[in-house]
Every structure is written in C-alpha cells, then in structure tokens.
Specification:
about 220 residues, alpha+beta, Aminopeptidase, seven-stranded mixed beta sheet, 11 strands, about 25% strand
Length: about 220
C-alpha cells in the first residue's frame, strides 16, 4: 500500500517507538525501524573530553538553531569518504522539512562566517528529542553542535535523547544501549513531560552546563 510520509505520520511513529529510514538516496521505499536495542544518551551522564571542552570554548563557531534546517539535512545526506550511500532519500528530506515548519524538527548549526561548518538535526516531541543525523565540514563542528544540543535539552527539562543506535562515536559521549522494553518506558515518561525546544542559552548558563558535564581525558 502506498502512502505519503507526512508530519502527522512521523509524529505517530516516533511516539510509538518507530522511526523511518530510506533504502537508498535514489529509492523512494521507506522502512520503519523498531530496534531490539536502542541507543540513548542519558542527559545526566553526558561526557565530554578535555580537548573538546577547549574546542567548545575556543573554536569561535557561531552556533545557531533552525536557521538552515534543510541545508543541514542535505549535508547529512551528502556522500562522504567511506560512505557513498545514505538512508536520507527525497521523501524523507521533504517530510522532515514539513515537520520542521510545523515546529517539531530542529537543527543545531555551527557557522564559520557564512560557511556552515557542521551541525545536526532531530525531532522534538514533549520531553523527548530524537536525534537523526549529524555532519561536519570542519573538525569537531558536529561535536560542538552536540554539546550545545545536550545543554539546551537539559536546561529545558527534556528526559530522553534518543540516538537510535549505539556507535563508537556516540559512546565517547556516554551513549548506552538499552532494550526495547526499557526504551518504551523511558519514551512514555518523556512524552508526559511538557518541554519546549530552546533556541539558545545565555552564555553564562551554557558555560554552567558545560562545566557540569563529566570530563574525560
């Protein structure tokens, strides 16, 4: 049965524990994924290295929210070294752009002047944020965006940061893998929380959150 990937369908899927992936960039087929094991970053267990903490403070990125959502998605979908294919196809690009315009999908972007150096995007529903993808055109830019995301989610009272899968890259930040049943419990608790995605934090408040993150070598 054919169907159109709509914001309403996406919201129902996320609140049920599902997320979509395309088979390939040029393929319109969508697969609904419900992993047996789910990756999450506990917001009270986020870790940051000393080197990245210095980078966050000194790199000089202009960190913005929702000023280039579709550009971030397109950059996440672009071929890169070691990965020629992507699950972000045309229908997913269109549907998430619509979800962004409806206020449920957000990007955090690192800018260097007029150049987009890196960023990430995801879906926000109640007290849950579902991370979708990130990219970097300048060393560590996506990591800096992630630090800003976590600080904002924590400040706004979010309860869940879903990373879909656990990777070595995400594990360095404290990401863990939990069983589907445990994930569903966390999801329902997060959906019962009223939270609003914050566009930015005052510099002093952001610095306080960076200081609170567990520091690694």
């Amino acid at each position: 049965m054919e169907y159109r990937l709509t914001p309403e369908l996406l919201l129902r899927a996320y609140t049920s524990g599902l997320f979509p992936m395309g088979e390939a960039r040029g393929d319109s087929d969508i697969v609904w994924v419900d992993p047996e094991w789910r990756g999450v970053i506990p917001l009270d267990g986020f870790r940051i290295s000393r080197r990245l903490r210095r980078k966050v403070r000194n790199a000089g990125f202009d960190v913005r929210t929702d000023t280039a959502f579709e550009r971030v998605m397109q950059a996440c979908a672009a071929p890169r070294r070691g990965r020629r294919e992507t699950w972000i196809n045309r229908d997913i690009l269109r549907a998430y752009a619509e979800l962004h315009r409806a206020g449920h999908a957000h990007s955090v972007e690192c800018w260097r002047g007029d150049s987009l150096a890196g960023g990430l995007y995801g879906v926000a529903i109640a007290g849950a944020f579902f991370g979708e993808s990130m990219f970097t055109a300048e060393t560590d830019a996506s990591k800096v965006a992630l630090v800003h995301l976590v600080a904002r989610l924590d400040h706004a009272g979010y309860r869940l940061l879903d990373t879909q899968f656990l990777t070595d890259h995400l594990a360095q930040f404290g990401a863990v893998e939990i069983a589907r049943r445990e994930y569903r419990l966390l999801l329902q608790r997060a959906l019962s929380v009223e939270a609003e995605f914050p566009p930015a934090l005052p510099e002093s408040e952001f610095e306080r959150y960076v200081q609170s993150f567990t520091q690694t070598s």
